[in-house]
Amino acid sequence: MFKLFFTLFVLLIPFKALAELEITIYAFRTSNDLSYKTYSYDVIEPEEIKTLPSVNMVQSGPDGQMSSIFLRGTNSNHTLITLNGIAIKDHSTPGGSDDLSQHSFLGVERIEVIKGPMGSLYGANSIGGTINMITYPTDENSISVSTGSNNTNTQTIKLGKVIENTLIDLRIENETSDGISVVNGDEKDSLKNRNYIFQTETYLNNYTLKSNIIETNNKSNLDKSTDYTDYTADWKFNNYYLSLQNKNEEYTINHTNHNRVYNDKGTIDTYLNDTTTLLAKKTINADNKSHTLGTEYEYSDIEFDTNISGYVSDVDKTRTNNGYFYNLDQTLLNGVQTHIGFRYDTPNTFDNQFTYRIGAENNGVRLSYATGYKAPTVYEMYGKDNWGFLGNENLIPEESKTYEIGYRWSNGDIVFFKTDIDNLLKYENSTYVNDTKTSERKGIELALYQDIGNIKIENNTAFIIAEDGNGDEIVRKPKWTNTTNVKYGNWFLDYNYYGKHLDIDSATYKKVEMNWVGLIDIGYEYNKDNLTFFGKINNIDDTYYQRPDGYNQTGRTFTLGFKKIF
After folding, report:
1. Which value, to the nearest 10 degrees, does the dihedral of the CA atoms of residues 468, 355, 23, 364 take?
2. How would you classify residue 179: left for phi > 0, otherwise alpha for psi between -120 and 50, otherwise beta?
3. Which of 1, 30, 282, 427 is least surrounded by Cβ atoms within 10 Å, i.e. has the fewest?
4. HSE-up (13 A, CA, CB side) for residue 71
5. Alpha-carbon Rg of the chain, whole angstroms?
6. Are 87 and 258 in contact (CB under 8 A)?
7. For the whole model, what pTM was predicted?
8. CA 257, 201, 43, 78: dihedral to nearest 10 degrees?
9. Angle 354-357-362 (CA atoms, 0-180°, nearest 5)?
């Protein structure tokens, strides 16, 4: 009923002539066109997210399996995932990690990866940075079909139309795959995904009314430490978004629902999270200054109930937060671009938080200092189980400080950064406590772009050291990662390097050293009129590897397909 009402509400708005107005969603929550100069960021295609060196995405097997993100060497719960600038966090996860791999990128035109703490804009949970997925409707009508290894098949239908002053976009995607056995067993771990997105943009004088309805349903077979049958995951994600905005103003309501069900031979674990977010912000431009003021309210209803493998635990809790933020972006007379931002959060389950960021840029050189925090989860504070665990209501947020200096030029970008994290949560004496020691993350990121005749080369390298409070290397965080992309005409070649690192042995649970992995992918795309044929071979030399330890990744695979625009 809600979906029907939402759709009718948007479509029944009085129509006017289609305005020539371009609306852009700014992940930095400011309309200042020069604010980005003081940040470290990447703007990428959705399929590139798994190969960006600073975004270390570790998936427990092939597509359909769970994943973790380690942005700039921080922990898996230190990266905030947003959709059109609104946090879509699943607060029902016990440790606070989000699973980006479960989100369909259907309708996502680009992804902005903002590196470093974004607490001054978004509040909690962005110590490592923010991954912002941006949806964008078009009037294209198309169908695309692909097939590949392991009986992997995808079909996508897109319908777009402009009706007077409203642009309507509907996309439906179906994906199935037999998969592989994640742990060298006899049963293949398959997946079956069905995704929908309905988007509109209505142009109203100086504003645009934007909306989307997103439904994602992912079903996959899972394994435990050994081959395991009749263990499945059913992950549903729904998002309803309505926003009235122009370049200087935004008034948004967003509702996100996560519903995860794990079924082990009839024994059920459920994780539920409903979050409603209200955002209002306004930018005032005067002379060379941009003042952005905003407020954000978030209400979350969080519930989970677990029973699998004899582990019984449950939580039923609500959380609210009011955030107030201010940004000042200014261009000085000598050409220096400056940024000052701060945010004050008033959560109902722990003390109020203040975060801020200071940045400056001139002639490509940028400097910044930023703070951030990660909120303890409701499980860490209020959870309990039948094995003696009891949450700690006195936990305080993890806090970070990040320093960075970078230089951006026409053919590249280099940045040095250092992040100190205090109050990290650790499990001790059947509960969680805040560590009194400081954990350190530091590194260098280098991006280079070069055209040699008709050949385009892009190389991204990251060297990151991640250590705990005792100075010990943290697992699943290789020091070196690299991605090289070469394009020549309709051909492209990708090389992805993932360096040596420590991991946890899946059988003994001791630390083990994992060897480096280098993967080569090659592809070709042919366009004629409104028809595109594409093909790709991943992992050309059929390298066998596990990441993390105990979880197989696919060997050599191929994909063939076409897209027809009508």
Report:
1. -70
2. left
3. 1
4. 25
5. 23
6. no
7. 0.92
8. -20
9. 170
